[in-house]
Amino acid sequence: MSESIRKHKAEAPRKLGFGVFICSTSRYQKLAQGEKPKDVSGSLIESYLKEAGHKVLFRKIIADNKTMIEQGMQYAFSLDELDCAIFCGGTGIAPSDITIETVSPFLEKTLPGFGEIFRHLSFGAVGSAAVLSRAIAGVAERKAFFCIPGSPDAVRLCFERLILPEAPHIVKHARE
User: Which of 11, 61, 147, 169 has its CA 20 to 30 A from that of 35?
Assistant: First the structure.
């Protein structure tokens, strides 16, 4: 690690406020019917964040729906204490997978390396199927945003190798 990166990371905030959106129409429908949906990835995200000392400001299940995702972005922008928002799910290639297409126009700057490195790391686990994996990160209004696949394995990879190590560094630069 270069000296400048080491310095930036040392100056980065230690504890961040996160918001988590689980983008899943099936889970949202169960919730709307009064059932408690199983949300393995959401629970995994929350445990990673809490174990790292970050604050989970909210965790919401929303449908793979353009309006709901846009409202999620607006909600994230409205919270002063929010530093990072995670949109988990809806990143595949099916017609209903619209998380990335909906979040992207809100981003002021994108971090292409996030998706590139995610696919590179995924290749080791899933082989050529990694080409179907979509993930993005970017910043807007001094906050970091991550769109990640909804599988527990993808969540583990994103949090252990990318989000937890770099979110504070990203937020530091987003606030400059």
Answer: 147
pLDDT in tens, 68-122: 999 999 999 999 999 999 999 999 999 999 999 999 999 999 999 999 999 999 9
Whole-Å CA distances, 99 to 21, 35, 36, 92, 176: 10, 24, 23, 9, 27
Residue 158: closest CA among 128, 134, 132, 129:
134
DSSP states of 56-87: EEEEEEE-S-HHHHHHHHHHHHH-TT--EEEE
Tell me the CA distances in angstroms from 60 to 52, 110, 135, one per residue in order.
Answer: 20, 24, 19
Q: Is 133 helix (H, G, I), strand (E, B) or coil?
A: coil
**Residues 14, 90, 44: CA angle, nearest 5 degrees:** 40
In single-letter form, the type of residue at position 167 comes to A
Query: What are 101's two structure tokens?
Result: 């297409």
* Block residue for tokens 């990072």: 84
The DSSP code for 146 is E
Model confidence pLDDT, tens digit, residues 30-48: 999 999 999 999 999 999 9
* Separation CA 119–CA 35 (nearest Å): 34
Spell out the domains of the chain, with CATH numbers in brackets. Answer: 3-174 (3.40.980.10)
